Amino acid sequence: MFSKTLARNLTAKVSSAQRNYKVAVLGAAGGIGQPLSLLLKLDPKVTELNLFDVVRTPGVAADLSHIPSRATVKGFVGSEQLEQALKGMDVVVIPAGVPRKPGMTRDDLFNVNASIVKELAEASAKACPNAMFLIISNPVNSTVPIFAQILKKNGVYNPKRLFGVTTLDISRANTFIGAYPGMAGTNVPVIGGHAGTTILPLLSQVPGNKVFEADIPALTHRIQFGGDEVVQAKEGTGSATLSMAYAGHAFATRLMSAMNGEQNVVECAFVENNLTESPFFSTPVRLGKNGVEEVLPFGKLSAFEQETFNKMLPDLKAQVKKGMDFVK
Questions:
Q1: What is the pairing mode between strands 21-26 and 91-94?
Q2: Is 194 annotated as catalytic?
Q3: pLDDT at 308
Q4: How many helices (H) and strands (E) does the chain have?
C-alpha cells in the first residue's frame, strides 16, 4: 500500500497531455552521476532513464529501479554499449570525467576529460543527433566547444540544442546572497564561463543590493572559487558532486518543462552566441521546444563588473579555442 501511494504522489502533478522524456546520463556511476540519476529518476517528466559509464552502471541502475517512480531504468557499461545507451534519447546529460583534486584548476582536467567528451560526442552524433545535450564535464569552457566541433564534423550540429550547464554558479550566488537580511529567494544572473575568474555574477542587477554592496568584490571572488571550498573541505576525497547534481537536474527539468510548452522559461547557460568576442558565452537564454529559443542580452554592467569582464574575456576566448583546437 505504501509503495502504491508513494508512486501516485510522485506522478500526481503529471498532466495527461505532458510529453514523456527519455533521458540518458553519461558518467552515471560517478560522484555527480549517481545523485543526478536519482533526481532524474524522481522527476515525473522522465519515463525512460538510461545510465552509462565504464564501470558499475548495472548496479546503480538496479538500485534506482527499486524506487517507485515513472521512469524505467537501464544500465549500460563499457564503450561497446555506449551507442545503445544513447539511441532514441531526448535529453543527454554528461557529467562524465575525472573530478578535481586539491590544487587542480578546471584547466588541469583538460587532457583527460577532453578525450572522454570527444568519444561521447562521436557516439551521440550517431545515436541521437537531435537530442538536447547538457554538458557538465569540466572544463566546461573547453568541453562544450569540443562537443560542438564533433557534431559539426558529423553534420548534425544544432547550436540551439547544446548547453554548458553553469547552474551551480547561480546556485552558489543565490545561496551566498540569500544569507543577507531580506535577500532569501534572490536569483542572481551569472554570465561568462564556468571556471574561476571567467564566472561573473551580476550582483549590481540584484534588487536590494545595498545590503551587500560593500561586500561585492569578496562575494564575487567566493562565487568564482566556490568549488575550491568544497575540494578543500573534502580533503582530497572529491569535489562538488551533490551540489552539481542538484544544479544539473535543476537545469534539465527546466529545459524539459520548456520543451513541454511552459512559457517564459529563462535560464543562464553556456551556449554559442555573438554577444561577445567569445564564440561561446554564458548568458540568460529563453528555452522552448527546440532548445534555445532566444539568446538574451545580459544588461548593463557596473564599473566593477565591466573591469572584471574585460579581464576575463581573453581567458575565456583562449579556453574556448583550446577546445576547438583539440578537435582540429
A1: parallel
A2: yes
A3: 98
A4: 11, 11
User: Which amino acid is located at 1 in the chain?
Assistant: M
In this structure, what C-alpha cell is assigned to residue 13?
Answer: 502533478
At residue 301, what are phi and psi to the nearest 5 degrees?
-100, 150
Superfamily of domain 18-328: NAD(P)-binding Rossmann-like Domain (3.40.50.720)
State percent of the chain over pLDDT 90. Answer: 88
What one-character DSSP code corresponds to residue 263? S
Low-confidence stretches of the chain (pLDDT beneath 70): 1-18, 100-107
SS3 assignment, position 98: coil
The b/e string for 19-45 (b: 16+ C-beta within 10 A; e otherwise) is eebbbbbbbbbbbbbbbbbbbbbebbb
CA distance 147 to 42: 28
Do residues 174 and 167 lie in contact, with contact meaning Cβ atoms separated by under 8 Å? Answer: no
Cis, peptide link before residue 44, omega less than 30° from 0:
no
- CA distance readout (Å), 328 to 118, 120, 194, 314, 324: 12, 17, 23, 21, 7
pTM of the predicted structure, to 2 decimals: 0.93
Q: Are strands 132-135 and 91-94 parallel, antiparallel or unpaired?
A: parallel
User: Can you give the pLDDT at residue 17?
Assistant: 54
Which residue among the candidates 66, 194, 221, 249 is catalytic per the annotation?
194
According to the model, what pLDDT value does residue 86 have?
98
Give the span between the Cα atoms of 46 and 27, in whole angstroms.
18
Residue matched to cell numbers 534519447: 89
